[in-house]
Each structure stands twice: as C-alpha cells, then as structure tokens.
Amino acid sequence: MPEATTRSPAGSPSAAPDDPWHGVNFLDPAVRERVRRNPHPALAHLRRVAPVHRTPIGVWRIARHADVLHVLREAPVGVRTSDGLLPGAARSLPDWGPGEFLLSQDPPRHTRLRGLVSRAFTPRAVERLRPRARALAEARVKRALERGSLDVIEELAFEVPSALICEMMGVPAADRSRFTDWTARATHLLTASFGNQDLDDAREAGAQLAAYFGDLVAERRKSRSEDLLSRLIGAEEEGDRLSEAELLSQSIGLLIAGFETAIGLIGNGVLALLQHPDAQALLRARPGLVAGAVEECLRHDGPIVLTIRVAHADFPLGGQTIPRDAVLMLLLAAANRDPGQFSDPDRFDIERAPNPHLAFGGGAHSCLGAHLARMEAQEAIGALVGRTSRLELACAPEALEYGPSLFRVLARLPISVAPA
User: Fold this and answer.
1) Of 157, 217, 265, 365, which shows the fewest CB atoms inside 10 Å?
2) Are 161 and 409 in contact, with CB atoms under 8 Å apart?
C-alpha cells in the first residue's frame, strides 16, 4: 500500500516541484550532516514521494522494501559495470584494497572467493565463539558496574568485536591496540567511491595492516594454528587456493566490513533501548527475547544505511525501466521502515514477528558476517541489560555524534549503570 503523499511529517524535507533531488541532495553538506545525524525523515520522504528515481548524477535511489528486495534477490544486478569497473571507485587503491575484496566481485570470482572464505562464518562456526563473546561482554559490564558508568562504544561495542576478531585472526594481544586503530582508520577505504576526505589516512592505515598481515601470513605458513588466517591460508576448494594478494584483501576486507558494522549495531541497539525504557524493562524481565531484540535493532536503526548494485541488463522497476550499467543506491534503512511491509514501522518493538528486515542486504552479496554480528550483539546487549537494573543516557541527546564513515556508528555513548 503506497504511503500518503498529501502531507509531509514533521522533520521531513521540503522540495520544489521541479527539484530532481526531491529535497534530499546527499552532495549538499548541510543535507549530508542532517542525514548523518538522523536519516529516517529524509528516507521516509523519498520513500513517499519518489520511491524509484534517477538523481542528477545518474544514480538511481530505491526506497521501498518490495523494490529493494526485488533488486537484491531477483533483478539482473551485480556490483561491477559491464567493463568490470566498480562504480566511482578511486583508481589509486592498492591491489589488496576493497576493489579486490570478495564483496566487490561478481560471479564467478565472487562465488569462488566466498566459497573459500565463508566456512569460517557459518552458524556452527560462530556458535563456537559464543562463550568467548559472552565472557568478554560480561567482564566489561562487571568493570562498568564497579564505577557506575560506561561508554558503550569504547568499552563494549568496540572492545567485544575487536577482541573477538583479533583472536579469530590470531593477532597477539600485545598488538591489539595498534591493530584495531589501523582497522578503524582503514574502514574509510570502503567509502572511496563516495569522495571520502579521509582516504589518504585510510590508505596509510591499510598499508600498515597489509604489512602486518604480510608478516603474519609468513609466520603462519611456517607454523599453522587454529586461527582464521591459518584456515584462509589452507583453504582449498577443487584444488583452488587464495593468491597472496587475495589472501591480504580478504583478511583486511573481512576486518573492515565487520568491524564498524558490529560497533554500530551494538551502539545503536543500546541507544534504542535507552530511548524506549519499556523495551528495556521487557528484555530485562524476559532475557530470551534478546535475539528478537537484536533483529529489531537491525531493522529500526541498523548500521548499514544503503548498499550499491549495478544493473547488468535493462529491467522494469516501480513503473520505470532501469537501464544496463545503471548504478542503484538501495536505501536499506528506508526499506526497513516501509509501512507497506511493517506495521507501525517507526515503533521500536522487540517482539516484532515476523521481522523481514534487509539490514544485511540480500542475494548473492548478502553480508558474510551476519551470523557473527548477530551473536556479538546478542551477547553484548544481553550482558548489559541482564546484569543491570537501570541504564540511563549520561549526556544530552543532542550531544551524541555519529562518526564520519559510510556506516551509521556513534562516536561515543556514555551511560550510567546500576547493578541488578
């Protein structure tokens, strides 16, 4: 059922009738800052007035759940143009950069790389990590309770995934601090095609990561262990192995793709619980709801606002024809609040079922680390809510800032905590 177009809700953009951006020009710094702080009014506006439209720079924006789902799962799309290029990607990125990562490949190379890498991220493999994730989360919550305060981002959302991924990759504890700093800075390589201003720093951090991994790979070739890097080195499928450049790219790409998103999921999820005390109380009373709560966190304010696809052939969508090689910006966060799919979509409901959100994308290029991110968030949020009697924001809401990356990630989230 289409949304009403007669009146815009409070906070929605306004647009002149002939504005090809429909009031939401992401190239305008003022618009970009407003959307960075809260994308949902602008996305709701696009979903309502222009759910499928071509922008002045040629990129198509897709906002409805049904249309986004169709593109992800059924339409003839990929991630590269017909001449093999990533849309808008910086040409000076290194060989091991995001352009060589499996999520930047189309079949058959994507199929090959994903088959070699994915075995480390199966549900069974992730479940083996759950006890360690729980111990990490509980230790950090216990430390916070001793002083009555916690920066959710720095001390929980950052610490749990970073410790876990470092242990998975076999990074020694003594190297963890600089390793996670490089990873956080190299994340901006993913925004190269969006004109990110931090690209030089990201390249430097990525080069440091590559050098570090190069040394670590050399060590693992001499002496294998049970870590993920050793498994990637030894991964075989039909006699195939990762080349040295592919090995570096997949190792760095897996870190970058999962690092910021896990931080964003945990941070945004805790913020939603702070903003909805009734949901916080319900989860505390019924801890078994944590898996559903994480799914609602992903739908309501997930860390990945959009994803990009490229049309490999002409196809119809929303009463229009998408031409071959058109770049499509799939607005996942808009789809996840589509009233045509979700009842009362702006309401945060941890008992929502079913919950067919698209926070991890879909189709062949769906998020490889979805199971890991879910598990980390379940353990971090479960420990924080389960071991406390109260969580309260310890700063003014307007003081909260989101980081500069493509992902929706809070820079900090200070809270006060009280023991259960």
Assistant:
1) 217
2) no
DSSP label of 238:
T
Gap between the Cα atoms of 188 and 205, Å rounded: 10
Q: Would you tell me the crossing angle of helices 370-386 and 277-285 to the nearest 10 degrees?
A: 90
Residues whose CB is less than 8 angstroms from the CB of residue 128 and which lie 6 or more positions away in sequence, other chains included: none
Answer for the pair 252, 213: CB distance below 8 angstroms, yes or no. Answer: yes
- Judge whether 255 and 183 are in contact, CB under 8 Å: yes
Helix axes 370-386, 159-169, angle to 10 degrees: 140
Measured CA distances, 62 to 114, 276, 336, 404 (Å):
27, 30, 12, 23
- What is the C-alpha separation between 259 and 336, in angstroms, rounded? 22
> Which domains occur in the chain, in start order?
29-419 (1.10.630.10)
Alpha-carbon gap, residue 375 to 308, rounded angstroms: 26
Q: Torsions phi, psi of 116, nearest 5? A: -75, -30
At position 373, the amino acid (one-letter code) is A
What gap in Å lies between CA 286 and CA 67, rounded to an integer? 35
Q: Which two tokens stand for residue 101?
A: 């990562």
Contact between residue 13 and residue 42 where contact means Cβ atoms under 8 Å apart:
yes
Residue for token digits 């008992």?
351
pLDDT tens across the length of the chain (420 residues): 456 443 445 556 766 778 999 999 988 989 988 888 899 999 999 999 999 999 999 999 999 999 999 999 999 999 998 888 777 654 455 555 567 788 889 999 999 888 888 877 888 989 999 999 999 999 999 999 999 999 999 999 999 998 888 888 888 888 888 887 888 787 776 655 444 455 778 888 888 988 988 898 889 988 888 888 888 888 766 677 788 888 888 888 887 777 788 999 999 999 999 999 999 999 999 999 999 999 999 999 999 999 999 999 999 999 999 999 999 999 999 999 999 999 999 999 999 999 999 999 999 999 888 999 999 999 999 999 999 999 999 999 999 999 877 789 999 999 999 999
Cis preceding linkage at 316, omega within 30: no
Q: Are 62 and 316 in contact (CB under 8 A)?
A: no
Q: Report the Cα–Cα distance between both ends of the chain, in Å, rounded.
A: 45
